[in-house]
Design brief:
Elements lengths: L4 H4 L4 H11 L3 H8 L3 H9 L6 H12 L6 H4 L9
């Protein structure tokens, strides 16, 4: 039985490393998947930069197989457009 995702990210580097290992990612692949610079990812792994909520949620979504929202959904509808 796998650990519930909600318990995985306690905001510490070990949790991020554990996620990376579970996903089978290299450091570069993990940074790419999280859309952060390699230097940012390395800083999170070393504890020099906190693991923010956005990163924790992205890790959970990736692990659960949830795709990002398509940018089209984020655009505001044009005036007079039918919803």
């Amino acid at each position: 039985m796998s650990t519930p995702v909600s318990l995985v990210f306690a905001g510490h580097p070990g949790a991020l490393r554990d996620w990376q290992i579970r996903m089978g990612f290299t450091n570069a692949a993990a940074a790419r998947e999280l859309d952060v610079a390699m230097s940012t990812y390395a800083a999170m792994l070393s504890g020099d930069q906190p693991i923010n909520r956005r990163t924790a949620l992205a890790c959970a979504a990736i692990e659960l197989g949830i795709s990002p929202i398509d940018g089209e959904f984020l655009k505001k509808p044009k005036k007079g457009a039918v919803k």
